[in-house]
Write a structure and sequence with these properties.
Blueprint: H1 2-46, H2 49-64, E1 67-77, E2 80-89, E3 98-109, E4 118-135, E5 157-162, E6 168-187, E7 192-204, E8 212-224, E9 227-240, E10 250-259, E11 265-272, E12 278-285, E13 288-289, E14 304-305, E15 308-317, E16 322-332, E17 335-346, E18 349-362, H3 363-366, E19 379-391, E20 394-411, E21 414-426, E22 431-437, E23 440-443, E24 446-458, E25 463-473, E26 476-485, E27 494-504, H4 507-520, H5 536-544, E28 551-562, E29 566-578, E30 588-601, H6 603-609, H7 611-616, H8 618-628, E31 632-633, E32 640-653, E33 656-665, E34 669-678, E35 683-692, E36 696-697, E37 713-721, E38 725-730, H9 735-745, H10 751-758
Parallel strand pairs: 4-6, 27-28
Antiparallel strand pairs: 1-2, 2-3, 3-4, 5-6, 6-7, 7-8, 8-9, 9-10, 10-11, 11-12, 12-15, 13-14, 15-16, 16-17, 17-18, 18-19, 19-20, 20-21, 21-22, 21-23, 22-24, 23-24, 24-25, 25-26, 26-27, 28-29, 29-30, 30-32, 31-36, 32-33, 33-34, 34-35, 35-37, 37-38
């Protein structure tokens, strides 16, 4: 019984509590409804839509100095009313065009401030707005000049009005929002237009003469080189409209992402002055291939772009037709660059100057971005500076300086390894020069290392010059200069070479010069077949003559001279060949040479193997036969014959060599030669006199084998075809005097090469 009473009492208590809760909730809802109804009544009674809308229109007219029209004003919620078809007319324009047209303006406000005669609008939403900014032919904008005051509370845009009943009201607008808008700019002075579409923009606590935070996104469309470019942009930052005075409008801390490539381009901007903008800009470009940016530039499958940071400060004048860039910094993982520029863009044409003050470059990565450099196989670090310019949008070089650190590359037919080079190019690479220290250079068959020297190439004049002040050429201490005039004109090309070396094989003179010219004028091909006849040496020599140096002059010094035929010391030669072409048909010019303290190798063997050499060696062949007959003993004369001096002087005309003077003098033999050798027709006519010394006589020699002193001697004429030479003996009585006359005939001068090898000055 007791439990039943307790349960019944508990049920009655719960029933009473539930009724009270329901009654309380009902009373609260009713109270809220009454408050809302009262607020709605106050809004309608004191702040109706016409009052607010009309005051907004008047305030806008006062702010903008332009006529403002509103088609319809209505409330849609207790805290929202809408202005439909708002238009701002540019009544200063000749055609009275619209500055802005807005489909609807939605205002969201708070109720409670109404009790204090305040309209606090949390958000003004402009839907489907079209804003038209123009620049007249006289350079003036259609932007209005606002008249506002600064506010210390930073709540937003403020203004006040009085109702028909005489009640003063204060209006505060916090955020301004533009949704799906269109911004159009037309420049009548330069006949250009730009537009931003799908524009969404929010201003937080907007004030027209203070910095206001904002964010936006839009789609940018513009025509570029007959193509329509479209890019979507998201941005945030701060703007000061400066009461819409164009010269005072400024933006700071703008962060934007531009979606035109696969990855966004990131932009950070500070700018002021809409008339003559001053800009501090930083752009981060994503990694991109040529295909990614083909819509902007036709780069012909040459370029790709790494992730790159570009920073610049500068200003623009006259609607960006003149752009002054005061500093330019470009950075990525491979390039660190600083530059100053003064550029002008007029009607899409770029002109102006760029001064590169600093650039640090990892050369091994450059070919990844500029494909034509791949064959150069660049490795090493570069420090660069220079002056460049755009002329009619064409990039040109005024001056470029590059210093390398352990550079390796293959340039034309030059191979460079671990070189330190100071390179300079001017006049759009028409003039190029380089100062070289250290490193190894491979030029065709030549290897040059431990080098110190420089080169100059004037492409405009077609002149090339290279000097090796010191270095190792194929392992030999060498100093060399090569000067090539008209380097790209085969018919007019002139080559001059000065060579001072520790050791020289004469064939190397042609090889060295050919390799240098081939490096600059490649693709020379062998167009002849090896000859195997009795005159193979001569015929192959004629065929192998290079046609690239039709005019070839110079001088050579070698401390040691070596060849299969003879060797010696202190070899001097100077030469000046004209029409030096294969087959020697038009060869002209001259050659002078001397050689000291040498040896003539294996005379008998050389005479037997080579018909051409056999002509000159006939005296020795005859003496060998006489020795076998027992006339006298020659010893090693026909094996390795020493000499003290050998001198030669000859001139050429159409391949015919006139031996002006030739003599050789030594402890065993002396000889002199005169006459001519036609290397083209393979004929010759030579007078040869020879005197033998220190021979061991076995009997008295006949008069036709001695000169007037009684020394063994020969005099004869050899002539005819080189393949079948003829020989006529002459009286040897005057051989000694003839050889002495040859020695005294002239003294050859080699002043240029002597000065070069001792005191080279640049």
């Amino acid at each position: 019984m007791t439990a039943r009473r307790i349960g019944h009492g508990l049920f009655r208590a719960l029933k009473f509590s539930a009724k009270n809760i329901i009654r309380t909730i009902f009373l609260m809802v009713s109270l809220c409804f009454l408050i809302g109804a009262a607020s709605w009544f106050l809004t309608i009674h004191y702040v109706n839509a016409n009052n607010i809308g009309g005051q907004i229109a008047k305030q806008l007219e006062r702010y903008l100095g332009r006529d403002v029209y509103i088609s319809r004003i209505k409330f849609v919620l207790p805290t929202t009313f809408i202005l439909e078809d708002l238009k701002i007319v540019d009544n200063n324009a000749p055609d009275y065009r619209e500055l802005a047209s807005i489909k609807s303006v939605v205002l969201h406000f708070e109720l409670m401030p109404l009790l204090e005669h305040k309209v606090f609008i949390k958000e003004v939403l402009f839907e489907n707005a079209v804003i038209n900014i123009t620049r007249a032919r006289n350079g003036t904008f259609n932007l209005p000049e606002l008249k506002t005051k600064k506010h210390n509370d930073s709540k937003g845009t403020e203004f006040s009005f009085t109702t028909k009943e005489g009640t003063p009201w204060q209006v505060i607008i916090k955020d301004w929002v533009l949704q799906n808008g269109t911004f159009s700019f037309r420049d009548f002075a330069h006949k250009k237009s730009h537009s931003l579409n799908g524009l969404n923009l929010r201003f937080y606590n907007l004030e027209f003469n203070e910095y206001t935070r904002f964010d936006l996104n839009f789609i940018f469309r513009n025509r570029f080189k007959h193509k329509v470019i479209e890019a979507e942009t998201f941005a945030k930052g701060e703007v000061n409209f400066a009461n819409f005075k164009p010269q005072n409008i400024s933006i700071k801390n703008l962060e934007a992402e531009l979606y035109a490539l696969k990855s966004p381009v990131k932009i950070n901007l500070n700018a002021n002055n809409l008339i003559n903008p001053e800009v501090d800009l930083k752009v981060e470009f994503p990694k991109a291939t040529e295909n990614d940016i083909a819509f902007l530039f036709d780069l012909k499958d040459k370029y790709s772009v790494p992730y790159t940071e570009l920073s610049l400060t500068g200003s623009a004048k006259d609607n960006f037709s003149q752009i002054d860039v005061s500093s330019l910094i470009l950075k990525n993982q491979d390039v660190d660059l600083s530059a100053k520029a003064g550029l002008t863009i007029t009607s899409g044409t770029l002109n102006g100057d760029i001064t590169l003050s600093k650039a640090k470059i990892d050369s091994s990565k450059i070919a990844n971005y500029y494909k034509p450099l791949k064959p150069f196989a660049l490795v090493g670090n570069l420090d660069a500076g220079g002056k460049f310019y755009f002329e009619e949008s064409v990039f040109k070089t005024k001056k470029l300086n590059i210093k390398t650190n352990s550079l390796s590359s293959k340039i034309f037919n030059f191979t460079v390894q671990n070189a330190n080079i100071a390179f300079e190019a001017t006049e759009n690479f028409n003039n190029m020069s380089a100062v070289v220290k250290d490193g190894t250079f491979l030029v065709g068959r030549q290897k040059i290392n431990s080098i110190k020297g420089n080169t100059v190439l004037d492409y405009k004049k077609q002149d090339f010059y290279a000097i090796i002040e010191s270095g190792l050429l194929n392992g030999k201490e060498t100093k060399m200069s090569v000067a090539i005039a008209k380097v790209r004109n085969e018919n007019k090309r002139k080559v001059k070479m000065l060579l001072s070396t520790e050791e020289l094989n004469p064939i190397e003179i042609f090889d060295i010069t050919q390799d240098f010219v081939d490096a600059l004028v490649p693709n020379h091909q062998k167009d002849w077949q090896e000859d195997t006849s009795d005159l193979a040496w001569l015929r192959n020599f004629r065929s192998a003559l290079p046609k690239f140096m039709i005019n070839f002059k110079g001088a050579v010094y070698a401390k040691k001279f070596t060849s299969p035929v003879l060797s010696g010391q202190d070899f001097y030669a100077k030469f000046n060949f004209v029409n030096l072409l294969p087959q020697m048909k038009w060869l002209g010019g001259s050659i002078d040479a001397t050689l000291s303290n040498g040896i003539i190798y294996k005379l008998q063997e050389a005479a037997d193997n080579q018909k051409v050499l056999g002509v000159a060696y006939q005296p020795f062949v005859i003496m060998n036969r006489m020795e076998r007959a027992g006339s006298f003993k020659m010893g090693k004369i026909l094996k390795d014959t020493p000499f003290e001096i050998m001198s030669a002087s000859a001139t050429f005309k159409d391949g015919d060599m006139l031996v002006n003077n030739f003599y050789v003098d030594g402890p065993v033999i002396s000889a002199a030669i005169g006459g001519n050798v036609d290397w083209v027709k393979e004929h010759f006519n030579l007078d040869i006199v020879t005197m033998f010394k220190n021979t061991s006589r076995r009997g008295a020699l006949s008069e036709n084998l001695t000169d007037e002193s009684g020394a063994p001697a020969l005099a004869f004429v050899t002539y005819g075809s080189m393949s079948k030479p003829k020989l006529e003996m002459k009286s040897p009585k005057k051989v000694g005097k003839q050889i002495q006359a040859a020695r005294e005939k002239e003294v050859l001068e080699f002043n240029e090469i002597k000065k070069f090898k001792q005191n080279y000055k640049e």
